[in-house]
Amino acid sequence: DCLLTDDPHRVRQLLDGWHTVGASGRSGFALFRRQLDPAQRPFLPPGTAKITYTSGSTGQPKGVCLGGAQLDTIARSLAEATRTLDIERHLCLLPLATLLENIAGIYAPLLAEATCLLPPASVTGMSYAGPNAQRLLGCITESQPQSLVLVPELLRLLVAAAERGWRVPQSLQFVAVGGAPVSGELLGRADKVRLPVFEGYGLSECASVVCLNRPDARRRGSVGRPLPHARVRIADDGQIMVSGVTMLGYLGLPPRRADEEWATGDLGEIDADGYVYVRGRLRNIYISSLGRNVAPEWVEREIAQQPGIRHVMVHGEARPYAVAMVCATDETVRDADIEHGIRDANLRLPEYAQVRRWVRAPESFSFQNGLLTSNGRLRRSAILERHGALLAPLYDEA
Fold first, then answer.
1. Rounded to two decimals, what is the model's pTM?
2. What are phi and psi of 269, to 5 degrees?
3. pLDDT (tens digit per residue) in 248-282
């Protein structure tokens, strides 16, 4: 019905059926409206306060409908988890369309009476095409925030910069990382450059954060313990099951109870102290011709942390060993550098999961070309459809 934008010219170019109502004198946002035929409206579960869209890694993104009470509960859990740090300044780097930044970067800091810093992308250097490292680092240095929310790719950028001499602001107390699994090696490197990183775990269908490492409860390699609003168990098939706070339903589909247990599709474990470990996606597991089940994300994150390597897709379904398609960080990275990185990662992997052969990807994996989701996860089926023919020769032995 309504659209707020800071770029009304673009809206007029791209969208038909919308008319301008006016503009805010304070924010400068223009307000557009349109009339919808009631028959065209998708079903909205009662109580919906926010619709956030999944990344669509296996198909069309779905609208996840969340209630106001759910959002408030999770925001309060997060505010309480960081209460002892007395955070007063949070710098928002991720787009506000990202649920994680919504909850952890806006709602929770405001509940804790902190200030949220919201510089534009022209200042932060953030873009789905890839961040501008110089602007991003400059923005963090200038802002002197006490907390940040990052995805693993941004954490890797900050760690690499710190290793090359960038001075981590002394103000930083809490850097939450989520959206995708993080390599243990990268977390170790972050510790060495004194980046206070705390890995967490969540998903849109559970209204964002489920587990989080905290200053008083942190275990390397885990995603932390469940927050007070969430209950987590492991099903017989190894899948992580979450209850306590879940979505009201998908847009246009029948509603569900907000306390109903949700099957996450993620494989995991829980140790004796209640820390949760995420091993990969259930649907992504492949079975080698030797009968071993392998979660490729586990192998990929070890390789992707090597210098010169940006993205990796591991494959091995019905084959005797794993192979990989690799995207280098830039064209100056030599094959020998990639080979060295893979060998180094293999030292930390069991023999059945080690990558024996690899090939360079003919194009980078990105959101723009449809090979990555908006939060940086591989679209495996799209990569295989476009470039899968390059993997078969890796199994041809002399």
1. 0.78
2. -140, 160
3. 999 999 999 877 899 998 999 999 999 999 988 88
